[in-house]
Specification:
- The protein is an alpha+beta fold.
- Helix 4 packs antiparallel against helix 5.
- It is elongated and about 75 Å long.
- The mean pLDDT is 85.
Length: 192
Amino acid sequence: MSGVVNRVLIGLVGLVLLVLGGSVLAVGLGVRPPSWWIHSGRHDVLLSTAERTRWRDAGWWWPTVIAVPAVLVLLALWWLTAVLRRRRLGEVLVDTGDGESALLRGRALEDVLAEHAEDLDGVQRAEVRLTGRRHAPATQVRLLLEPHVDPGTALRDLTDRALAHARDSSNLRALPAEVRLRCVKHRAERVS
């Protein structure tokens, strides 16, 4: 979901910047703008001297001039770090037992774990995401359960079978998991 929101925000910001930049370029090339537009002609400036010095003596002006761009820069930096931060674990460091270690692709472990979880009784669909660090991975598991499955049993089966198998096969000391259970929506059954 956050990927969709991110793409929409980037698209909107890009569209606004493209329209503003294109309109300034068009006015600079001689296109006559509408009467309400911020530029009236080719030699017009964005802010005239009167507009720039209008609020200079007001007490709120300079704090606002400093605070608004500072907040915008902080929001842009926060957004950039959120986009660049990798949420998925790319690889897991596996101890081979002979003093060496090997790298296991994170996607492969996710796929196998999801496949084992979907093989459990009453699990219709499973989504798995590895998080954490290479030497200490953790999992986020989402299970879509059939209507008449006991959630406690499904969670126990996931822990005892699928997660234990993934932990043992990748020779990890621990594989913490955050599990979210959801039930398939279904109609009420008619009792006669």
